[in-house]
Amino acid sequence: MAAVETKKKRYALVGTGGRSIFFYTAIARTYSKTSTLVAFCDTNQTRMNYANSKLQSLGHDAVPTYLASSFDAMIKETQPDEVIVTTIDRTHNIYIVRALELGCNVVSEKPMTIDAPRCVQILDAVERTGRSVRVTFNYRYAPHNTKVFELLREGAIGKVTSVHFEWMLNTSHGADYFRRWHRDKRNSGGLLVHKSTHHFDLVNFWLQTRPLTVYAQGDLKFYGRENAELRGQTSFYTRAHGSAAAQADPFALHLEQSAQLKAMYLDAEHEDAYHRDQSVFGDGISIEDTMSVLVRYRSGATLTYSLTAYAPWEGFRVSFNGTGGRLEMEVVEASYVNSGGEQALEGSLERRTITLRRLFEKPVEVPVEEGGGAHGGGDEVLLEDLFGTPVSDGFRRAASHVDGAASILTGIAANRSMATGEVVRVDDILKLPA
User: Fold this and answer.
1) What is the distance between the alpha carbons of residues 47 and 269, in angstroms, rounded to a whole number?
2) What was the pLDDT predicted at 346?
3) 179 and 57 in one domain?
4) 320 falls within a domain
5) What is the pLDDT at residue 140?
6) Are residue 252 and residue 323 in the same domain, yes or no?
7) Total domains in the fold of the chain
8) 3-state DSSP of 336-364
9) What is the reported pLDDT for 3?
10) Which Pfam families does the UniProt record give (predicted)?
């Protein structure tokens, strides 16, 4: 008998900026037998044209392109099964909700959205349509993070009572959030939503619980013009391109020196006036770069968390205290700039260690399988789960819209706490379904 050809799942992608490359490259290069792209949608035609050129270089046919105002027409004309949403964070809800209403499932880049009203729109749309939303938390799939889940689930340190989690963004990757649209809190919700959604999701995932109360403090301590002036800086510029002052600034991003950044942003800015290379020491930055958060969970455990966006190295340290001992992990990640043609470097590891310290026993270094590719090996496993053979395991790594909401609610509550100086009950912001 002839083999029955499996019907390819059809994907449309909205938002052809830097993160989109991760998804459409995987479909074209690795998952062409199971998946196919049928359309691109964006506010910028130049950027869509570049995405099509990348597709064709990988052997995939060019796909129709639609400006954002024609999103409904794209769904009607190309009939995707799923829509991949990689737009700026504040617009995720618009495309997620509309895709669900038009009969598609959704794959959303993190964070799922940036505030409670937008989150409610998504939750209501899922319930109303019966469709699904997957949030792509690739860190869950990294072998070292999965190993921590496994150890905690097995009771290696007894019941977890507290967690200390310190994340460092360096002066390459961390600085990059202050050059682009993320620097405006209205777009990203700030780093406690945009970036820390990964970290808060990991704690929810590791402990299999949700946040109860949140207290936070944070400020802009390093980036921004005022901080630079206080340190004695006198030379300023608005953006790097065309600026003589930027030539001597180690924080400057020179778009013309990267073929990919030039094609995606410098050559496209005549359409939308978006400047990808703004000065990290300029005006108009409304997000924090130094943050501390204290969380109590429904399980009774507490979290002390810090995020620094100007550290000399990239990575994190996390420690779990339990009734039977302590589990420690340190991960050092490689430095990179988003969309800078270094996709394989994103979150790739220089070093990682997991140490188990049971009470009254000698410490043991826990072996972890090597994972190839970006984000400590998590990207490849996530992509296989999305576009290949779904990962069948007991680790509960596939993240739903409820997981996406639970992760951002810690950051949303932290933002409210920073604004009010008060402890915030998460249920007072949004009560999630059980």
Assistant:
1) 9
2) 60
3) no
4) yes
5) 94
6) no
7) 3
8) CCCCCCCHHHCCCEEEEEEEEEECCCCCE
9) 47
10) GFO_IDH_MocA, GFO_IDH_MocA_C
| Domain with 327 in it | 138-223+285-378+396-428
Chunked into runs of 10 residues, the chain (434 residues) has average pLDDT values of 69 97 96 96 98 97 98 98 98 98 98 98 98 96 95 98 98 96 98 98 98 98 98 96 96 96 97 97 97 98 98 97 98 78 62 97 93 70 90 84 98 98 98 85
What CATH number is associated with residue 107?
3.40.50.720
**pTM (2 decimals)?**
0.94
